[in-house]
């Protein structure tokens, strides 16, 4: 039975390298900073969050701000049980999904989700994979009418100094297109420190990069 205080958020996209795991960790850090109950369920095959936590323990010690649990999901039944268990936890439960979302075993993850965060970049391969992601989610909605997850599209790794006039116009058109399937959040700025994210806190340069996007998303969720 789902806890009244339970919020399940899945980070997903069809393409790897768009910052899915990094933003998942950063949102957990952000929520923990604001004293929210949060945990990460790491189902990504690369286990980025899990490995980062193991590395961070050597620097920050054993006093972990939130838990990270690792699961290998290969079939719908296992995923179903995992999602049902996640619904009983209070607070925010963040799922870092695998890099491919076409695996039938992942369907319950999206069906049970309250929110889906889909990072993307304004480049052709990322946009193509995001459109594929939208198609898969729409198909899941058709097959599972009980699915009511709200999607947030997050433009990621944005350098405000870059972009020709034609590119900026294309980005605006992309936002309009994606807004037909969900909500386009404020962009997350590019920072070299993104490669040095940790699972204990948000370094100051990264706070500036993610603040507007995360504040928008969290306020929308909690209103």
Plain-language structure description:
This protein has helices at 20-33, 48-60, 76-87, 107-112, 124-143, 165-179, 204-222; strands spanning 6-11, 38-42, 67-70, 91-96, 115-120, 150-155, 183-184. It has 223 residues and is an alpha/beta fold. It has one domain: P-loop containing nucleotide triphosphate hydrolases (Rossmann fold), CATH 3.40.50.300. α2 links the parallel β2 (38-42) and β3. It has a seven-stranded parallel sheet, sandwiched between helices. It contains seven helices and seven strands. It is globular and about 45 Å long.
Helix/strand order: EHEHEHEHEHEHEH
- Examine the coordinates and then state which fold CATH places here, giving the name of the CATH topology: Rossmann fold
> Proportion of β residues?
15-25%
- CATH homologous superfamily label: P-loop containing nucleotide triphosphate hydrolases
Mean pLDDT: 90
Largest sheet, in brief, is: 7 strands, parallel
Total helices: the number is 7
What general form does the structure show? globular
Radius of gyration: 17 Å
Give the strand order of the largest sheet, numbering strands 1, 2, ... along the chain.
Answer: 3-2-4-1-5-6-7
**Strand count:** 7
The total tally of domains equals 1
Structural class: alpha/beta
CATH class: Alpha Beta
End-to-end CA span? 23 Å
- Unreliable runs, pLDDT <50, ≥5 residues? none
Name given to the CATH architecture: 3-Layer(aba) Sandwich
Kindly state the percentage of residues in helix. 40-55%
Question: What's the arrangement of secondary structure elements?
Answer:
Elements (H helix, E strand, L loop, with lengths): L5 E6 L8 H14 L4 E5 L5 H13 L6 E4 L5 H12 L3 E6 L10 H6 L2 E6 L3 H20 L6 E6 L9 H15 L3 E2 L19 H19 L1
């Amino acid at each position: 039975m789902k806890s009244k205080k339970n919020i399940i958020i899945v980070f997903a996209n069809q393409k790897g390298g768009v910052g899915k795991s990094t933003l998942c960790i950063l949102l957990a850090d952000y929520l923990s900073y604001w004293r929210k109950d949060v945990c990460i369920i790491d189902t990504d095959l690369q286990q980025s969050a899990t490995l980062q936590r193991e590395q961070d323990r050597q620097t920050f010690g054993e006093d972990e701000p939130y838990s990270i649990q690792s699961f290998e999901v290969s079939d719908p039944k296992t995923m179903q049980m995992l999602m049902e268990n996640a619904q009983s936890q209070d607070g925010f439960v963040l799922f870092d999904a695998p890099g491919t979302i076409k695996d039938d075993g992942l369907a319950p993850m999206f069906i049970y989700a309250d929110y889906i965060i889909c990072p993307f970049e304004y480049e052709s391969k990322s946009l193509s994979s995001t459109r594929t992601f939208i198609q898969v989610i729409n198909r899941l909605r058709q097959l599972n009418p009980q699915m009511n997850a709200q999607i947030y599209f997050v433009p990621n790794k944005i350098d405000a100094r870059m972009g020709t006039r034609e590119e900026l116009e294309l980005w605006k058109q992309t936002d309009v297109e994606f807004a037909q399937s969900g909500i386009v959040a404020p962009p997350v700025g590019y920072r070299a420190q993104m490669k040095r994210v940790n699972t204990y806190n948000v370094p100051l340069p990264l706070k500036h990069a993610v603040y507007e996007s995360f504040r928008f998303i969290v306020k929308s969720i909690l209103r």
